[in-house]
Amino acid sequence: MGILRLSHVDITVPDLDLAKAYYTGVMGMDLTEETPDRAFFKCWDEEDHHSLAVRYDPRVGMDRFAFKVDHEDDLAEMERKVETYGFHVQRISHGEEVGQGESIRFETPSGHEMELVFDVEKVGGRTGKLNPEIPVDLLGIAPPRMDHLLINAEEVGEAAKFYMDVLGFRMTEQLVGGDGHQIGVWMERSHSPHDLAVVNGTNGALHHFAFWLDDWDHVRRSADILAYNAIQIDVGPTRHGVTRGNTIYFFDPMGTRNEVFTGGYRPDPDFPTITWTEDNIGQAVFYYEGEVNDRFVSVHT
Ligand SMILES: [Fe+2]
């Protein structure tokens, strides 16, 4: 019961054609639907209608992020909890939003619009479910699925408390300052190192969303594809101290930061939280480099 995993991220882009070219040709996602001002994409091994939606807007940003719940009753339960916490909940009925049924939307303490969905249109993965073969005709990076997102908040502790106390996220790791306040919090629902993370920054902002890759070899090949397509790499390939994952950060041509990610541990619900101290922030974020570049800290959308 409760939240299963990330469902989709809705971002804004100033150039729909460029977004379509990049997310299909370089990232290798499938375009599942288009409207005059939006485009919807999924990864090849995802079953649901979309994991990324882009909407035309002159300003690069994020409309909302959505998590999927296990059971229809979870929506009413979460609606009650969010309203008890003091936030207004908006019901989205079937047919109102492309590719999904009944859902709820609300603003979170970090100033983000969050959505919880249960009923999502199934369009199916590339391989089918009967004696599936490994696809060999994939274009670009072609991650099998979306993995997690990282958002910014001015008050990280207050933001994380909402996601944990109200929505049931479990904290795997935290980065704390000298006075004990939280600078970063990593949380999971899907027994992965993180499904959602919050780091200090502007309320309502997106730092990045990340695609899952199966192994380090795929990370290396992704770097080749990014370089070939002249995509601006932010950091990597490298490894995180937090999550222990392997990673590359890069920017889509409109300016939203993407990540490819693999590895890490598998936390059970009784996983004890790992704590990093601010004096080790370099190693926590980029384990090999031991330092964080200014762009990584200051640029978000
Ligand atoms: Fe990430």
Structure notes:
The protein is of the alpha/beta class and 301 residues long. The protein has 2 domains: 3-117, 2,3-Dihydroxybiphenyl 1,2-Dioxygenase, domain 1, CATH 3.10.180.10; 145-298, 2,3-Dihydroxybiphenyl 1,2-Dioxygenase, domain 1, CATH 3.10.180.10. The protein is built from 6 helices and 17 strands. The protein has helices at residues 16-26, 72-85, 156-166, 216-228, 281-285, 294-298; strands at residues 3-13, 30-35, 38-42, 52-56, 61-69, 89-92, 103-107, 113-117, 145-153, 170-176, 182-188, 196-200, 206-212, 233-239, 245-251, 257-263, 274-277. The strands form 2 sheets. A 9-stranded mixed β-sheet has the order 14-15-16-13-9-12-11-10-17. An 8-stranded mixed β-sheet has the order 2-3-4-1-5-8-7-6, covered by helices on one side. Strand 7 (103-107) and strand 8 (113-117) form a beta hairpin. The mean pLDDT is 96. The structure holds fe (ii) ion (FE2). The site of fe (ii) ion has 6 residues, from strand 9, strand 13 and strand 16.
Helix and strand layout, with pairings?
Layout (H helix, E strand, L loop, with lengths): L2 E11 L2 H11 L3 E6 L2 E5 L9 E5 L4 E9 L2 H14 L3 E4 L10 E5 L5 E5 L27 E9 L2 H11 L3 E7 L5 E7 L7 E5 L5 E7 L3 H13 L4 E7 L5 E7 L5 E7 L10 E4 L3 H5 L8 H5 L3
Parallel strand pairs: 1-4, 5-8, 9-12, 10-17, 13-16
Antiparallel strand pairs: 1-5, 2-3, 3-4, 6-7, 7-8, 9-13, 10-11, 11-12, 14-15, 15-16
The structure holds fe (ii) ion.
